[in-house]
Amino acid sequence: MADSRGHALGAAMLGMLLDGYDLSIMAVVLLPLSSAWHLQATETGILMAMALLGSLIGGLFGGFFTDRFGRRRLLFPNIFLYVLGALISAFSPDTAALFAGRFITGLAIGLDYPLVATIVAEYSQSAQRGNRFARVNLAWYVGALLSTLVGWALLSTGPDSWRWMLGSAIVPALALLWLRRGLPESPRWLVRKGQHQQAEEALAQLQPAYSPAQRQAELESFQIQRQSWRILLRKAWLRRLFLSVFPWFCLDVVGLGIGLYFPMVLRDNGLASSNAAAAAINAAFLIISALGIVFIVSRLDRWGRIPLQSAGFALMSLGLAVFALCSWNHWIMGVYLAAAVYSFGVGIGPGVTVFALAVEIFPTELRASAAGLATALSRLGAFFSAVLFPIFEKSWGIPLVLVFMSVVALLGLLATLIYGVESRMKSLEELENLTAKN
Fold first, then answer.
1. Average pLDDT, stretch 116-144?
2. CA angle in degrees (0–180, nearest 5) for 286-408-390
3. 182, 75 in Cβ contact below 8 A?
4. What distance lies between CA 131 and its chain's CA centroid?
5. If we measure between CA atoms, which residue out of 39, 47, 40, 41 comes closest to residue 23?
6. Closest to 115 measured CA to CA, from 427, 379, 367
7. Quick check: 403 and 69 in contact, CB under 8 A?
8. CA-only gyration radius of the chain, Å
């Protein structure tokens, strides 16, 4: 019987690739679309925010459904919903239809986020969990980079190139649909539901090299008393909930606000000579973030989540502050160097760690729900950033907007240092027991 852990990792990576592809291609879509439809700043903000609003709602419901009905049942409906949204977006005759299509794709991604995070946490061994979270988040950047390259290539097809860009996302969606076939249910979830025979069969599929005695021992380790959501009102769990939510909120306020508009900022501030140049420069900085993740793939399980998340937020804040200063003084090389520092900071820390911490530090029966809540609130921050960024840029100017973003990243750093809980090299059950004793 083939080892399904690699299969699960591949499915999770492709799911994150799809999210990176969908959100990032909008940065290139906006270049021809804003000219073709003469979008105002408010319309632009709403368009960029619709998928984030959908993700907010999807995250809340996706987490609950994943904990209630199991990890496997949400694998396929999300993808069908995503394909529907992509088709509506690509063929939309007006802004109302485009807004609706983007909302539906965001809803599908939001439903998928807590599912993917939970699969990575529960289908990985303790010593490899960080490595796998890093790989999955690297796939997000691969998707973002791929969408930027696809968008750049499609720019030459004319004023309706944005339709081809939005429709192109159907290809990775269908690939994900095929890859998710045959994934087993989570043994942990099955044990907590009292389905011990099914749990043993699922574990045998995930760990075919285990002997019956090894499987039985692992299944017994999953048998911890079921927890109610009311435990999240206790101080120790509230601290963990804040750690899982607030730094991710800060990351999305900064990261998605800048990521969605970076090519347009480059073009409109004379930092890129054309749409194609802006897309190419944007791709270069995505590569820098991806290289940051590559750097920590083999280190995250050794160095820990909290030190890397703290270092990442610090570099993000520093990079944005210097970016603002150099932009104010029209020093283009300084802008590029500062953006590189910011991009590397995202990659070596929060771009991976917030995703991991949102699921690692919660009980099995609440894990996806906690991740869904973190996803929803992070996308709330991204929603406000997407709506307000073009408005604030117009009224404040890009340097002051970047200073504000730098302060938000600094708040993410402080929250990590104050509320940090290290999950490195601990099993999910160990982490649950540590909190239960507090």
1. 89
2. 65
3. no
4. 16
5. 47
6. 367
7. no
8. 21
Band of pLDDT at residue 2, cut at 50, 70 and 90: very low
Report yes or no: 356 and 306 within 8 Å, Cβ to Cβ: no
| DSSP 8-state class, residue 185 | P
Q: What is the mean pLDDT of residues 337-358?
A: 94
**Helix intervals (H) in 193-234:** 196-206, 212-221
* Side chain identity, residue 214: Q
Handedness of CA 211, 217, 218, 222 (dihedral sign): positive
- The first and second tokens of residue 418, run together, are 């104050």
Residue 369 near residue 229 (C-beta atoms within 8 A): yes
Tell me the C-alpha distance between 61 and 66, whole Å.
8
Q: What percent of the chain has pLDDT over 70?
A: 97
Q: Is 28 helix (H, G, I), strand (E, B) or coil?
A: helix
DSSP state of 40: -
Distance separating alpha carbons of residues 144 and 22, to the nearest angstrom: 8
**Cα dihedral 219/302/246/108 (nearest 10):** -60
What the block records as the tokens of 36 is 């073709």
d(CA 29, CA 103) in angstroms, rounded, equals: 16
In 253-286, which positions are buried (b, 16+ CB within 10 angstroms) versus exposed (e)?
bbbbbbbbbbbbbbbebebbeebbebbbbbbebb
What is the Cα–Cα distance from 152 to 275, expressed in whole angstroms? 8
For 141, list phi and psi in degrees, rounded to 5: -70, -35
Q: Is the pLDDT of residue 73 over 70?
A: yes
**pLDDT tens figures, 253-263:** 998 777 777 77
Residues 6+ apart with CB under 8 A from 171: none
Q: List the one residue out of 238, 353, 262, 240 whose CA is nearest residue 301.
A: 353
Count of alpha carbons within 13 angstroms of residue 125, beta-carbon side? 9
Contact 137, 289 (CB under 8 A): no
Give which of 385, 375, 381 is closest to 57, Cα–Cα: 375
- Measure the CA–CA gap between 294 and 291, rounded to whole angstroms: 5
Rounded Cα distance between 334 and 349, Å, is: 23
Here the tokens at position 219 are 């299944």
Query: What Cα–Cα distance (Å) separates residue 113 from each residue in 117, 120, 168, 377?
Result: 6, 11, 21, 13
Q: Is residue 155 within 8 Å of 31, Cβ to Cβ?
A: yes
Contact 108, 79 (CB under 8 A): yes
Among 321, 317, 340, smallest CA distance to 413 is for: 317
